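Entry type: protein chain
Record version: 2
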Amino acid sequence: MKITLLKRSLIVFAGIASMLAASALNSPGQSGESAHPRITTRSVVSMATGSVVPTSGSILFRHRDGVAFTFSTAGLTPGDAVTLWMAVFNNPDACATSPCTPADFANPAVNGTLLNTGGRVIGPDGTAVYSAYRAVGDLTGARPMFGTGNGLVKPTSAEIHLVTRTHGPANLMDPVVLQEQLSMFFGGCPPPSTACMNLQASVHQR
């Protein structure tokens, strides 16, 4: 099942990447951004232990109009609601450390934004695949009042972190709460609750 999911995600990503590459070569793009598409692959790391999550990884495709990714992971708790967040640091040179950290969202010079890119209820095998595309300036899923809120501005040079976040057991009895668990940073666990926490990360530096 894990191999099937990974193969399927790679096929979908390859199709998206091909279309975006063609678009990038035929569009004027953003000022100062490279016209050459670029693909990077990274491991997925447990934020609790710092160890690499087996059979997991992410692929990020960049071009001057936006970015697309596929994030395939394992080791999640069956039945939990888990979201995938894209942390964008448009000016990573302004971050206090390398790689950037959440503390850097407070620095306007970093021009950071946190974007929800989807959520799902984890199945019995504990695996999940997330895929999304974000165009320059697309604020879909942006966490309000966090960072500058400008979205993706420099797609070919921004530092991008892909982070899974648990919202605890999915509330399948209440569709309103479930939707919050799959789309909001504190969905299903508003402060002072500590039920929500970041689990895994995959960091793509330029």
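Comment: The beta strands are 38-42, 45-46, 57-63, 66-73, 80-89, 112-121, 128-135, 159-169, 197-204.
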